[in-house]
Amino acid sequence: MLTDVVIANKSYTKFTVAEEDELDVIALKVMKQDCPDFLLPIRTMEIDGELEIRYELAGGMRLAYEPREMYKKEFYNMLINMLIPFKNCNDWFLDYHYILLDDNYILVDKGGQSVKYVYLPVASCANTDEQIRRFFMDLILRTTVLDDRGSMVEPLRIINSSDANLMVLLDYLMRQGSQGGGQPAAKQEPQPQPRRQEPQPQPQPRRQEPQPQPQPKQQTLQPAAEENKGGKFGFLKGGSDRGAEKQQQGLNLNSGQDQKLPDGSRPGQISKEFGKNDDQGRLIDSLFGDDEDEKEPKKKKEKEPKKAKEKPEKQEKQGGGFLGGLFKGKSKEEQGEINYFQQQNPNPSPEQFQRQPVQQRQQPVQQRQPVQQPQQFNGGYTQPATDTGDGDTVIGGGEEVRDNRTLRLRLKDCEGCNCPKMIELNLEKGFTTVGRVGKDGQRKAEFCFDMSVSFVSRLQFRVETEEDHWRVIDLGSANGTYVNNQKLIVNMPAPLRVNDEIMIYCNQRSLVYRVC
Amino acid sequence: MEVFTGCITDKGSCKKKNQDRAVCHVSGSRKAPWVVACVCDGIGSFERSEIAAEIMTNGITNWFYGMEKLYPEKINEDTLLEDLEMTIRELNELVCEYRSENAIDIGCTMSVLLLLGRNYYIFHVGDSRIYLVRDGLYQITRDEVSMVEQEGGRMKGLLINYIGRNPELWMSKLGDAVQEKDLLLMGSDGLFKRLAYEDVADHAGSIKNDKKAQKACEALLQTVMSRGERDNISCIMIYIASF
User: Fold this and answer.
1) Which of A251, A265, A281, A246 is nearest to A90 (CA)?
2) Which of B81, B148, B55 is nearest to A439 (CA)?
3) Do A229 and A247 contact (CB within 8 A), yes or no?
């Protein structure tokens, strides 16, 4: 679906809108003319009648390359910065369901201080609320908090709770942030002031009042929705007037009344088709939960039978509704699983959550997520070495495959620094990162050069195993990483093979390592 | 080249804690000794600014120990200077990261002096000062302060640039040459508010080794405190005895 490309030494990902796709014209306009800072800026091109949207992958590192081990404060900050765009989407006439939730296309800068998403303004790319919830749950589960492992329990409990939504999680994280909990343990603090650690209250996820289950009558929808607009449900609470206005508009249109915006600038067709913030649907869902799931697809079937046939599963899933009724779409099996944890232990540990089969949880997200096409990354990069000449195993088709779980780098040349002659990178877990010890003595990368090698960034590059060879990715380093004299494009993997040379340099200082 | 140095920092007579930090390092190389000194004054209105000052001075110290092994054998003067600038920029980023991660306001001024043979180089942010004492007291750095009128017509200096303000650092870079018997005097604003040339000149002549330089620093500090200075005080002296 998304294809990574390199144009003029910059990395982009492009998305081609298929002819049958419904395009959200308003969202496209917003992104082109006044792109919010939480989205990657776009450029559009029309090629043979097909619209191509290009997103520049700049301004951070892919979330997939972020370290999995963090301090509590760092992780909470990152989560907050990841959740805020979901809250702010309404202000920009955007729908958070169309934010692409793929680790490869979420750019994180400065340890999570800024997060940028890809927004896919196409109907077929919508996430369900369940998928969004699972994405964040997986993110929490796969991260190890170094200084306070117990701190993950509460966010997990919130996100697993049957009556909570991401807004509650955001609230909780922000409250924790403002309380100043979770000082990074390793940070050096001079003259440590005896700072009294106030006992942190155990904030319970804000429980929403149980939803009444009225009969879904069309005429009762509008007042109910207006009631909710006041802040009863998740993200609506943070919505601006513009958002509320839009919600109102969407409501009226979908309830069959032919209404227009006061200024007439927004024709009703947007809401009828695609490009609306489908707030009405979500409001209905939040009110009627699963009951509505059966009715909504029927309605759509009448209007667009072809589409309904194509995506019956998606419509069913979306029916859960993110606001208030967000997690009602859970299967009974899962519900039982969660209840099991809650009943067995009111204060579950992260390990208990991890007992859930991760593969199963990730499936819905993975099914619709774009997968990077490996062949795309080879463009512009060096050809693989064919012969080592020294009897080493050669990587290539039909030849002996070398164990790629260890990468050995031999120092070839080093100017103006003292570098180790041999580096052994352990790739048993599939990847490793290389960088330099920070000037504060902190290590961000798994293998770190000495502090005096200033021209190497704290996070310079990442090496991954890829079948029978390796891939190397520059993580946005200050001076760049070169493989066989070709500068790596930030965030774009390049193949690394035996005898390849990795070089980092700045003016008169350099280091060159050869893969052996 | 023979250089004598002294370094002292004190919380002063009124403040509860010292938010200043000062370090001065001289390389052990007999062939070409070189000096790096740094004085940082934590911003008083930010409660925990000593953290910023500490990050800076620790960073400079670490940098010095790393570079001591490399200069002059493996790297030249330009590279050393370039590396110092990169280090200062990174340290500023670290202060900013600390600020945002912990949601607390911290910041400090910074004056770094690097003496390589006859040449000195200065990296300066804020209102700490570096003076050259040579038949007079000459201020080398410029205070990055803007004067604003307060209620009642009182003028007050507001710091317009400091470490930790922005991840992209705006920094003054200066450099010149020194002569024999020159004294480079560095200090926080607490030192210079109540200091005259005569005070410095009296002590400068007596510096004949590191101990004397240290004593001269202590004497200056006492002089300023006796005149009623209430702020944190830091003082670094670098005396070029001979080439």
Assistant:
1) A246
2) B55
3) yes
Q: Where are the alpha helices (DSSP H) in A401-460?
A: none
Pick among A75, A175, A187, A452 to test the B interface (most B CBs inside 10 A) = A452
Q: Using the predicted structure, report yes or no on whether residue B96 has a pLDDT greater than 90.
A: yes
What share of chain A in percent tops pLDDT 70? 56
Q: What is the pLDDT of residue A178?
A: 65
The C-alpha atoms of residue A23 and residue B235 are separated, in whole angstroms, by: 66
Q: CB of B41 within 8 A of CB of B144? A: no
Q: Is the pLDDT of residue B21 over 90?
A: yes
User: CA torsion sign, A192 to A198 to A204 to A207?
Assistant: negative
Q: How confident is the model at residue A180 (pLDDT cuts 50, 70, 90)?
A: low
Q: Which residues of A touch B101 (CB under 8 A)?
A: 73-74, 77, 111, 184
Under DSSP, the state recorded for A152 is G
Q: CA–CA distance from A481 to each of A110, A491, A504 (Å)? A: 19, 11, 5
ipTM value, please give it.
0.86
Cα within 13 Å of Cα(B99), Cβ side: 21
| N residues, chain B | 243
CA distances from A154 to A87, A335, B223 (A): 21, 18, 57
pLDDT at A287 over 50: no
pLDDT score of B177 more than 50: yes
Q: Answer yes or no: are the C-beta atoms of A437 and B69 closer than 8 Å.
A: no
Q: How far apart are the first and last CA of chain B?
A: 4
Interface of B with A in 10-69 (CB under 8 A): 17, 21, 48, 50-51, 53-55, 58-59, 62-63, 66-67, 69
Contact A68, A251 (CB under 8 A): no
Helices (DSSP H) in A241-386: which residue ranges?
241-254, 269-272, 279-288, 290-303, 305-310, 312-318, 332-344, 350-354, 358-368, 374-377
Higher pLDDT, A242 or A54: A54
Backbone angles phi, psi at A326, to 5 degrees: -50, -50
Domains and CATH numbers, chain B: 2-242 (3.60.40.10)
